[in-house]
Amino acid sequence: MSNGDRVRQHARRQGKDMETAEERKADFDKGFGVNPEQQSLETPAGVHSTAVERTRYYSIAMSMRNKGFTVWPVKPEPEKAGEYGWNNLAYYADEIVHRCLAKKFPNHNAAVISRRGIGNLVFLDIDSPGVLERIEEETGRKVSGITFSVCSRPQSALYKRHFYFRQTAYSVTKWRTENNVRDITQWVPDKNGNPSHPTLFDLKGIGGGGYVVAPGSVRANGEAYTVIDDLPVIAVPDLLVDWLAKQITSWNSAKRREQQEHAAKISTLSKSEQSALRKAGDASGFKYPVSEIYPFMNWRAAILASNAVSKKNIQRQLIEEINRDFAGGKALTSSEDGQTKIRRMVASKNLGTVHWDWVGPKRKASLVEGSRITARQTRHGLLVAAMRKFPKSATAEDGYRRLQRALVGTGFELIKGKAAEKAVAQVRKGAGYFTQRTKDGWIWIKPPNEHLTTTHIQ
Fold first, then answer.
1. 3-state secondary structure string, the chain?
2. Contact 237, 124 (CB under 8 A)
3. Number of structural domains in the chain
4. At a CB cut-off of 8 Å and minimum separation 6, what does 413 contact?
């Protein structure tokens, strides 16, 4: 069954795919909340269709669809979240489906959607003043006035722009995930008053799926997303690709360095000192700022899923770690919106799939100093190296403490739980240790004949 057939089947289950226009109309009314008994039997033909066409969503969606863009409804501010199906059904929706959506969500805004692939859209979302000018100055090439662009705040912030480009074979090799780049040198309060680095720009539509709000959509303050350059969408220039890729790498490196420095600082505090700072609401008592919660959730959920941890336990582990390690964590996990986002994040992960968003891109091995090959450090490799320096025997409790200390400042951590037990078992195997139960508890022992042990490769 093709994807188009699946969408039509889904539409049929909703009662939206009938043989005649009259049947479609009647079924739309039934499936999208219009009570036929409340409609006048004397309503002239075409009036109902005209009403649909006058809705905000339909007018925006059709305008964008006529340009060849993929569109779907998004909730008004402050959520701006895509409705169900935005990253799958949207790609196969026809005009009939958008009529149905307009009945269901008449006052919704619309999003223009894309995902990674040559020829697909990529959105450069400028969020800070001076960024566009810096791009044009440092690349020596104009960005404004060469492709389709939209201003998201035409009255209050003209610098906020969405530039639409087409992905190329070159850009696809450079970008694999959605990217958010921030100014590491500044701190500003976020919408909840928590300190956060201000966003410079986003790259969207280049990973598993992303979107920008479409022109014609209306913000909560009444400002409308407005087309600035109504031009054909061009292929993203290689010079721009290189500049953006360089900024993404620089931001990821700076963020990782900041995290490591903060983790090292936190490790010098006693548990009572950390507890006092957290109770006082001081962000310096937590390992990570609130701005890192969502990237962490995505990364951590994928890691746990790849270790065959059940979704129920992944959710429990995420909540525990967010509450303990992140400023603003408890506020998020106790809110209905936060719980919904955690459930959705966990549900989106497949066993065996690892995402590297939070720890940076997975680096391939490269030649260094002639024939010497170095590769990105892994948690497993770091722990095996640390365990090989252990004494001939150690209690399990002492072993865990030693391993946790070995990860301080590396960007990795080891938190007790089923996933950690499995990881440590692999580390013991790699370092040549086995376990033995004594009257005082479990101990880890290294046998004298180390050449007989098996090394675990990961």
1. CCHHHHHHHHHHHHCCCCCCHHHHHHHHHHHCCCCHHHCCCCCCCCHHHHHHHCCHHHHHHHHHHCCCCEEEEECCCCCCCECCCCCCHHHHCCHHHHHHHHHHCCCCEEEEEECCCCCCEEEEEECCCCHHHHHHHHHCCCCCCCCCEEECCCCCCCCCEEEEEECCHHHHHHCCCCEEEECCCCCEECCCCCEECCEEEEEECCCCCEEEECCCCECCCCCECEEEECCCCEECCHHHHHHHHHHHHHHHHHHHHHHHHHHHHHHCCCHHHHHHHHHCCCHHHCCECHHHHHHHHHHHHHHHHHCCCCHHHHHHHHHHHHHHHECCHHHHHHCHHHHHHHHHHHHCCCCCCCCCCCCCCCCCCEEECCCEEECCCCHHHHHHHHHCCCCCEEEHHHHHHHHHHHCCCCCCCCCCCHHHHHHHHHHHHHHCCEEEEECCEEEEECCCCHHHCCCCCC
2. no
3. 3
4. 404, 407
**Chain segment 334-383, per-residue pLDDT in tens:** 988 888 888 888 887 665 554 445 555 444 333 333 434 344 568 888 88
Q: Residue 346: inside a domain, yes or no?
A: no
211 part of a folded domain: yes
Task: Assess whether pLDDT exceeds 90 at residue 240.
Answer: yes
- With respect to residue 382, please indicate whether it lies within any of the assigned structural domains: yes
Per-residue pLDDT tens digits for 269-317? 888 888 888 777 777 788 787 778 888 888 888 888 877 778 888 899 9
Q: Supply the pLDDT for residue 293.
A: 86
Both structure tokens of 362? 């997975």
pTM of the model: 0.65
- C-alpha–C-alpha distance, residues 356 and 377, integer Å: 13
C-beta separation of 137 from 208 below 8 A: no
Looking up residue 385, the CATH number of its domain turns out to be: 1.10.10
Q: Which residue has the tokens 């890691």?
A: 303
Domain containing 402 equals 366-452
